[in-house]
Give the backbone structure.
Amino acid sequence: RQLMPPSIAALTLSRRSCESVRAIQAGLLPPAGSVNHISAAMGIPVESDRVETALEEKQIVIVDGLKKLLADTYTLYLTTHNFHWNVTGPMFTSLHAMFMTEYTELWNAVDPIAERIRSLGSSAPGSYAEFARLSSLPDAPADPPEATDMVRILAEGHEGAARTARRLVPDAEEGNDQATADLVVGRIGVH
């Protein structure tokens, strides 16, 4: 380690002090003289960094949960729309209308979930491959089932989407993300 002449050392210390004062004024460092200020100036993580990192980690968990909810919602939408097109039998008229009401509600739910993901700084999944990977729900059967089986499959799909949403509530609350908590609780109520 090389020693600096006192005049250069003082100038360097003075320059660092000015930078620290500017950083404190900008709110980038804790107040001078505090343990956190000294730690931050030395590059040692401080408590506020740990809290911020924990919140960032919680936000990642929230975004991942929202992506799963989006995938479940879209999968359920697609299955419901499929059944609307393919329902047959004596309950055709009532089920055809009910399925249309349900797929319309699900379609309208997809956008707010995707926009919430975007507002948290992530991209929203938007491909069938991503939805298949993220969804907890199975794809619609290749051959249309009987009408009563359609109703059972959709009921199970709603239960699955509600489970996905319920798992997200504690994370949103712990992450102080009231907007996500409200959105998710609203989805639970629908399912």
The radius of gyration is 26 Å. The mean pLDDT is 83. The helical segments are 6-25, 35-41, 47-86, 92-119, 128-134, 147-174, 178-190.
